[in-house]
C-alpha cells in the first residue's frame, strides 16, 4: 500500500467576518494561536487562513501569533485583539480539525500535519515501501595485496600559508591551495629527510570564503583565516601504501586539539603518520595537546606559533622519521615562508603486518582485514591487548542478570560514516551490566567508505546490521536525511525484534555513563503503566550543568522531545511511524516528535544528571563550541544508582509542583544586565537558604515564544538556544542548593497560580542584545609570536 500523504485541511478559517467558516482556494498560511481556556489552562491552536485576508486587515502572521485569545465556557473563541483591532473569529477549541502542525519543507513551503489524517493508518500500510528496503552492501573481507616495491617509498609533505599537501610516491593524498603564489622550499629537519632548493608553483582555480574571528579589545586587528586552516592528518599502512585514516582538525575551534590527541593515541602501532599544517595550526592548540604531541616524539609542537609552517612524519609506536618547522617571527605582523619536507620510507618487514598472536576464527579474520584497511580503533586493533570479541552465545538467557534488571529491551544504534565513534559507543554499550549482543541492531546510513567501515565494525563485533538507502532529495539536506535514516532504523527494529516491547535508540557518537543500562531498565517501569502518560525516557537533559545537576536519583517530567539516547515502546512507534514527516520536510525529527500533536498529551522522563552526552567533533550539527558544551555536561560515574521512581509518578510529581508553587518566594529584584557590564546576568537568589523555592515569571505567549526564557536561561548559565525541557510551561531547575521555578506566562497551565508573584521578565532590547552576544570569538586563541632568540631553545641550545 502506498505511503499515506497529509492532505490540506478543507476547513479554513476566514478571519474577516463573524461566524464564517469557508473553504478557500487562495494561498493559505498556518497560524499558531495561543488561547486561554475558561479552565485557566492555555492551549495552542493551529489553523490555516488566507494570506490575502491578513494583508487586507494590515496584520501579519507574527502579529496574530503574538496575540492571546480567550475562549468562553463553551470552548468558543469569538474574537482576538491584534494591534488594537478586534478581529471576529469563530474557533471551537474542541474541534479536532485544529489539531494541526505546520513544518517547513526544504523548498521553503509548509507541510501541514494532522493526526486526524492518519486515523486508520498502520505500519503494515508500509509493507513493500521501497524506502524501507535495506541497501544490499557486500562487505569485502579480502586483505589487500602488499605494495610491490623494491625501493624506498618517497614521501613529500608541504606546509604554508597558501597551500598544504602530502604526496606518497606519485599519489597526492592531500592538496590544499588558495590562489597562486610562488613558494620557496625551505630546508630543515632530521637526518632522514631530504631537501630541495628549487622553487615550486602552486595554483588553484577554486576559492572559498574565509572564516573570520572578531578581535579582542587589546588586538584591535581583524584576524582572517581561510577555510581548512589547522592540522591535516593522513595515516598510511606502510605495507599496502593505502591511507587508513584521513582527518582534518580545525585547531582554531574548540576541542579539536584534544580530538587530535585522542585520535593519535588510537592509531595502530607500525602505521606511518603524516601531519601537515595549513595557514595556522596554533590558534587553540592547548598545552595539553602540545604535551601529548611532544610525548609522541614531536620536538616542534611545544613551540608552534601563529602562522608557523609545520610538517611531521613518524611511525606510530616508534620514532620520528622527519619533522620541519619554519617559524613566523612576529605573529600577526609577519608571515612565514612555506616548507617542503622529503623523506624515504624503507620497505617494512612482512612479518610486522598482522597480529600473529590473535586467535583464529571468522570474526578474528574479519577483524584482521578491518584493521588492515582502517585506523583509529585503539584496542580493537591492538596486538598485545585486543578487545575480546563478545561470545556468539552470550544472550539474555545465558548471562547473569543484575538485581535491577527488569526485562529485555532492544537497542537500535543509528550510525553513519563515523566508524571510530561507533566502535567507542558499541564497546561501552556491550560493557554495560546486563547488556547482550543479541539485543543490538546497528543501522548504517549510506554506503560510502566510512559507512562501510561502520558496518564492518558491527560485523566484527558479531552484531546485526543493516544499511539505509539514501532517499531521493535528501543527499544535500542534513535534517531530512537524518530523519529518514532514523525512520528506517525504527521500522527495522520492530521487524528485527518482534517479541520486544521496549526499544532504546542511540546515536553513534554518544558516550554512555556506567549506569546507562541500569537507568533505562529502572525507568522502563514508567512506560508500562498507561496512567503515567509517559511516551519516552530520555538519557539526557539539556538543563543539566555542574550547578544544576546534583542528585542522580532524581527525575523530571517534561512536555518535550528526547535527545542523546532515549527509550520508548512498541505501541508508540507503531502509532507514530505511519505519521513520520516526508523526505522533503526540513524540520528536525526531534522537534516534530516533541509537539503536542505527536505526543498526544504524554510526557517525557528526564534525568537530573545525564547518562549520556555527545563525545566528538564530527557531526552535521556539531562544531567545536557545541562539542565543548556537551563535554562540560555532568555524567554519572557509578555502575548503578537506585532511582526515585515514585517522585516522578504523575500524581506525586504534580502534587510536588503545586506544593512548590504555593511556597515559592518571588524575586524581590530580578535584573538582567546588558552585556556592557562585567556581570553578564545577575539574579538575586539567596543561595544560603538551603532547600528554599524561588519563582520567576517570564513572558511566554505560546510554545514557540522563547526569547524571555532564553534570556533568563543564559543568565542562569544553562541551555538557552530554545525553550525545551519544560513541564507545561514550567521549568524546575535545581539551581545550586535551591529549587528555582520558572513559569512562562500566560502559556503555562500554572500561570493563574502565580499571578502577582514578582514582575514578569520581558524580552527587552538590552536583554536580546545580551542573549545574542556570542562573546569573544578569539577566547582561547593565542596568536602567539616567537620571542627573540627562541630559535636557540627550539634547536636545543641552552
List keywords for this structure.
798 residues; alpha+beta; 5-stranded antiparallel beta sheet; disordered N terminus
Describe the protein's architecture and organization.
The protein is α+β, with helices and mostly antiparallel strands and 798 residues long. It is built from 17 helices and 40 strands. Strands 26-25-24-27-31-29-32-30 form an eight-stranded mixed β-sheet, sandwiched between helices. Strand 1 and strand 2 (21-22) form a beta hairpin. The N and C termini lie far apart (80 Å). The model is unreliable at 1-26, 179-221 and 670-681 (pLDDT under 50).
Topology:
Blueprint: E1 12-13, E2 21-22, E3 28-36, E4 42-50, H1 51-57, H2 61-65, E5 68-70, E6 76-82, E7 85-92, E8 101-104, E9 110-113, E10 153-159, E11 163-168, E12 171-177, E13 181-183, E14 193-194, E15 200-202, E16 211-213, E17 223-225, E18 230-236, E19 243-249, H3 256-265, E20 272-278, H4 287-295, E21 309-315, E22 320-326, E23 339-345, H5 362-373, E24 410-415, H6 419-430, E25 440-445, H7 449-460, E26 464-468, H8 478-496, E27 502-507, E28 510-512, H9 516-527, E29 534-538, E30 555-558, E31 566-569, H10 570-576, H11 589-593, H12 596-599, E32 603-607, E33 612-614, H13 624-631, H14 650-663, E34 665-666, E35 670-671, E36 682-683, E37 693-700, H15 707-716, E38 730-735, E39 738-746, E40 760-761, H16 765-772, H17 790-794
Helix pairs in contact: 3-4, 5-7, 6-7, 15-16
Amino acid at each position: 500500500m502506498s505511503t499515506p500523504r497529509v492532505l490540506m485541511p478543507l476547513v479554513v478559517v476566514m478571519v474577516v467576518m463573524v461566524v464564517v467558516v469557508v473553504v478557500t482556494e487562495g494561498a493559505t498560511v498556518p497560524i499558531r494561536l495561543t488561547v486561554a481556556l475558561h479552565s485557566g489552562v492555555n492551549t495552542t491552536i493551529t489553523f490555516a487562513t488566507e494570506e490575502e485576508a491578513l494583508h487586507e486587515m494590515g496584520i501579519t502572521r507574527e502579529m496574530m501569533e503574538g496575540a492571546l485569545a480567550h475562549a468562553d465556557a463553551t470552548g468558543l473563541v469569538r474574537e482576538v485583539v491584534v494591534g488594537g483591532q478586534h478581529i471576529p473569529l469563530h474557533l471551537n477549541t474542541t474541534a479536532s480539525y485544529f489539531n494541526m502542525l505546520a513544518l517547513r519543507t526544504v523548498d521553503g513551503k509548509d507541510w501541514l500535519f494532522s493526526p486526524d489524517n492518519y486515523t486508520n493508518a498502520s505500519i503494515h500500510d508500509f509493507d513493500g515501501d521501497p524506502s524501507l528496503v535495506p541497501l544490499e552492501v557486500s562487505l569485502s573481507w579480502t586483505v589487500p595485496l602488499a605494495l610491490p616495491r623494491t625501493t624506498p617509498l618517497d614521501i613529500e609533505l608541504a606546509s604554508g600559508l597558501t597551500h598544504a599537501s602530502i604526496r606518497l610516491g606519485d599519489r597526492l593524498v592531500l592538496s590544499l591551495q588558495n590562489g597562486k603564489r610562488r613558494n620557496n622550499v625551505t630546508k630543515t629537519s632530521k637526518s632522514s629527510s631530504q631537501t630541495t632548493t628549487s622553487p615550486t608553483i602552486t595554483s588553484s582555480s577554486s576559492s572559498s570564503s574565509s572564516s573570520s574571528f572578531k578581535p579582542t579589545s587589546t588586538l584591535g586587528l581583524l584576524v582572517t583565516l581561510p577555510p581548512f586552516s589547522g592540522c591535516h592528518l593522513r595515516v598510511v599502512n606502510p605495507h599496502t601504501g593505502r591511507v587508513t585514516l584521513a582527518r582534518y582538525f580545525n585547531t582554531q575551534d574548540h576541542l579539536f586539539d584534544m580530538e587530535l590527541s585522542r585520535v593519535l593515541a588510537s592509531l595502530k602501532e607500525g602505521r606511518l603518520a603524516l601531519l601537515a599544517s595549513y595557514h595556522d595550526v596554533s590558534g587553540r592548540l592547548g598545552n595539553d595537546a602540545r604535551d601529548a604531541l611532544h610525548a609522541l616524539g614531536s620536538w616542534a609542537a611545544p613551540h608552534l606559533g601563529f602562522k608557523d609552517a609545520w610538517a611531521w612524519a613518524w611511525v606510530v609506536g616508534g620514532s620520528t622519521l622527519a619533522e620541519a618547522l619554519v617559524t613566523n617571527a612576529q605573529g600577526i605582523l609577519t608571515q612565514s615562508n612555506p616548507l617542503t619536507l622529503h623523506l624515504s620510507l624503507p620497505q617494512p618487514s612482512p612479518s610486522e603486518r598482522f597480529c600473529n598472536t590473535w586467535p583464529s576464527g571468522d570474526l578474528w579474520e574479519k577483524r584482521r582485514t578491518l584493521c588492515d584497511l582502517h585506523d583509529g580503533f585503539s584496542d580493537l586493533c591492538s596486538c598485545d591487548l585486543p578487545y575480546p570479541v563478545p561470545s556468539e552465545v552470550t544472550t539474555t538467557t545465558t548471562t547473569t542478570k543484575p538485581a535491577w534488571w527488569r526485562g529485555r529491551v532492544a537497542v537500535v544504534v543509528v550510525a553513519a560514516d563515523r566508524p571510530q565513534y561507533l566502535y567507542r559507543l558499541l564497546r561501552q554499550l556491550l560493557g554495560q551490566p546486563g547488556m547482550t549482543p543479541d539485543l543490538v541492531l546497528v543501522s548504517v546510513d549510506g554506503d560510502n567508505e566510512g559507512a562501510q567501515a561502520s558496518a564492518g565494525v558491527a560485523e566484527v563485533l558479531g552484531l546485526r546490521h543493516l544499511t539505509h538507502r539514501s532517499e531521493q532529495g535528501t543527499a544535500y539536506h542534513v535534517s531530512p536525511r537524518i530523519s529518514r535514516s532514523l525512520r528506517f532504523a525504527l521500522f527495522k527494529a520492530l521487524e528485527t525484534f518482534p517479541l520486544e516491547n521496549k526499544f532504546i535508540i542511540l546515536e553513534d557518537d554518544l558516550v554512555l555513563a556506567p549506569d546507562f543500562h541500569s537507568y533505562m531498565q529502572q525507568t522502563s517501569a514508567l512506560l508500562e503503566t498507561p496512567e503515567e502518560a509517559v511516551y519516552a525516557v530520555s538519557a539526557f537533559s539539556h538543563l543539566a550543568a555542574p550547578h544544576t545537576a546534583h542528585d542522580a536519583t532524581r527525575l523530571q517530567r517534561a512536555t518535550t522531545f528526547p535527545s542523546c539516547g532515549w527509550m520508548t515502546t512498541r505501541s508508540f512507534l507503531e502509532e507514530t511511524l505511519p505519521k513520520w514527516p516526508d523526505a522533503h520536510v526540513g524540520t528536525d525529527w526531534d522537534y516534530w516528535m516533541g509537539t503536542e500533536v505527536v505526543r498526544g498529551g504524554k510526557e517525557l522522563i528526564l534525568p537530573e544528571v545525564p547518562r549520556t552526552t555527545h563525545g566528538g567533533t564530527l557531526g552535521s550539527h556539531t562544531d567545536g563550541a557545541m562539542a565543548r558544551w556537551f563535554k562540560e555536561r555532568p555524567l554519572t560515574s557509578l555502575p548503578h544508582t537506585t532511582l526515585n521512581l515514585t517522585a516522578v509518578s504523575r500524581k506525586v510529581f504534580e502534587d510536588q509542583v503545586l506544593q512548590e508553587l504555593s511556597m515559592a518566594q518571588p524575586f524581590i529584584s530580578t535584573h538582567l544586565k546588558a552585556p556592557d557590564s562585567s556581570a553578564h546576568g545577575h539574579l538575586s537568589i539567596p543561595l544560603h537558604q538551603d532547600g528554599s523555592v524561588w519563582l520567576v515569571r517570564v513572558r511566554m505567549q505560546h510554545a514557540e515564544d522563547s526569547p524571555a526564557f532564553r534570556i533568563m536561561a543564559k543568565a542562569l548559565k544553562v541551555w538557552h538556544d530554545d525553550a525545551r525541557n519544560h513541564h507545561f510551561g514550567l521549568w524546575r531547575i535545581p539551581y545550586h542548593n535551591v529549587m528555582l521555578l520558572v513559569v512562562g506566562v500566560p502559556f503555562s497551565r500554572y500561570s493563574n497560580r502565580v499571578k502577582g508573584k514578582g514582575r514578569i521578565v520581558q524580552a527587552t532590547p538590552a536583554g536580546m542584545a545580551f542573549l545574542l552576544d556570542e562573546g569573544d570569538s578569539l577566547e582561547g586563541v593565542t596568536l602567539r609570536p616567537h620571542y627573540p632568540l627562541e630559535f636557540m631553545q627550539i634547536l636545543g641550545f641552552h
